[in-house]
Amino acid sequence: MIEKILKDYVTFIRSFEALLKDKYQQDINPCSFSRTFFERVGSIDRIEYHFHGSGCTAKKDGIIYAYDISFFEKDVIEFSQWKLTEFIRTHPEYQKLNYTEDYIEYELFQLINKGILEWLTIEGIEGTPFGCVFKCYRVVQESFLD
């Protein structure tokens, strides 16, 4: 079921990005041009959005889609377990599953084993006070969406 949930999450993100690309006639990721062509906070097609750093939080019909776009590889979706958990928690169908954080983490690990996701570990960023390790996931195989 986590694979289906991830598919819905990624499909929404790509559809949302396509709306912005179409509206602003750009072929690059909206996270890259949000400051240049449009306000970082706004709405489109009943989707409220807020771009921040390298990512975005979008909300439609009460469902929260928070994600980042890779600094290291073009258009790769990155997310933390918390961001996917927020999607599940706010989704009317998926919240009924009552998944624990441990279960979600286990299932995401299974998607790493399938080659759909990879770990993304950031061990601090030069020039910043971060001294901790951030464990995130990268979507490396979107062909599972078909």
What would you note in describing this structure?
Strand 4 (63-69) and strand 5 form a beta hairpin. The chain has helices at residues 2-23, 30-37, 81-90, 101-113, and strands spanning 41-44, 47-52, 55-60, 63-69, 77-79, 117-122, 134-139. It has four helices and seven strands, in the order H-H-E-E-E-E-E-H-H-E-E. Helix content is 36%, strand content 26%. It has a seven-stranded antiparallel beta sheet.
Distance between the termini: 16 Å
Radius of gyration: 15 Å
Could you tell me the number of beta strands? 7
Look at the structure and give the mean pLDDT: 88
How many H/I helices?
4
What does the largest sheet look like? 7 strands, antiparallel
Protein topology:
Elements: H1 2-23, H2 30-37, E1 41-44, E2 47-52, E3 55-60, E4 63-69, E5 77-79, H3 81-90, H4 101-113, E6 117-122, E7 134-139
Antiparallel strand pairs: 1-2, 2-3, 3-4, 4-5, 5-7, 6-7
How would you describe this structure in keywords?
146 residues; 4 helices
Kindly summarize this structure in a few lines.
The chain contains four helices and seven strands, in the order ααβββββααββ.
